[in-house]
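Hi there,

I know you've been waiting on this one. I reran it after we fixed the sequence typo, so this is the corrected version. Both the input and the resulting structure follow.
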Amino acid sequence: MRVLLLSPNTLTAPYPVYPLGLDYVAGSLSSAHQVRIADVQVADQAVLADLLGEFDPEIIGIACRNIDNTDATDPLFLLHGYRELVSWLRQRSSAIMVCGGCGFTIMPGRIFDFLGVDYGIIGEGERFGLLVDALARGQDPAEISGVLIPGGTAAQPPPWPGEIRRRLPVEDKQSSFYVRHGGMLNLQSKRGCSFRCLYCPYPRIEGKVHRLVEPEQVARIALGLQAAGARYLFITDSAFNADIDHSLAVARALRDCGLTIPWGAFFAPIMPPPGYFEAMAGAGCRHVEFGTESLARNMLQVLRKPFGPPDALAAHRQARAAGLHVAHYFLLGGPGESAATVAESLDLIEQLDKTVFFFFIGIRIYPGTGLYDQALAEGQIDQHTDLLKPVFYQPAAIELKAIEALVVARADGRRNWLVGAGGAAIAATLQTLHQRGFVGPLWEYLAK
């Protein structure tokens, strides 16, 4: 069958993100099928229309990575654009429309109906290959776990049990776009998340148990991405150091394989073993992005974080001592948040040197999370509340706007304290630096 895989993501702030998921979906497809990948960051509607006419796909797989930007201070809902794209495709193609991805898996039934597609893929995208094979053979796909059909039940499947194969990008128009806009391509070293954070849908998307990629395989992929033109790699694991031993093994493999480009990752600010971040730096790591969320002890407990303030401070200091660029992401406004807990976080933040702080205010309520259960018990939502458009948890003791005001007042014009991702001004600055040949996330230029 002729299969077109489509990335509809148009976000470029703070920088465009390579659609990694489609490489795994492409890798899951039998060689019996013809596969093309289209990325709207690269292909405008005219190019896409020509591709539809020339390739005449029988199936179009649409990646739904994000429903919105999860930012209460500057909300952006993305699914209207996706629905318009499906309508536009329907007018030009008779192909079967299939949607999947991280965002889709969070609310599959609701997004399925909203977009008006023919099938949905719940969970990991490799199930798309099973759907394509079934349709090619004229079989009913209703029995495939994780495939949503019209009128079907959006049941959560178990983690993908089969082989995980990635199509490596080549030095083509698509990869060249991301190389020009920051030099960044990305890779995974594991799937699944063992943490139990109150608000996070990640374990529902990828499973609650780590499935580790062999470090040597990670290194081979990294070298392949470097050969495709990447000048920087970002490891997209929910937390690279959630498995300390595996992350150290991956770092050693990256060091020993001859990789010459720098890389970064998300890390949890758990207490690191001695020399951990020195090992990361020695393997080429340059950027550490900590999902710190809060530095108020009670809030970290409420959010079910596997660390406390002393751990976060220690992780920061070790990373800085290793010469790494460090950023911290905060998520304020959870259950029990108050002016006192915000002040507790801000006071400890003052102890963190040479870093950048991204403050996201308001925690989006997702189905299937502990926060959903708590909001339901408190009457903030009910079982009929439509969560497709963002609904943010409201702490009893303080309004979200008041939290924002406290953060803005404490920031006092400091450029390394950013509410959200920094807005259009930061995005424009990064774009200028990328055009001048700088690579990576570049937020270190804001650090003080």
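Quick highlight: The chain has a mean pLDDT of 94.

Best,
R. S.
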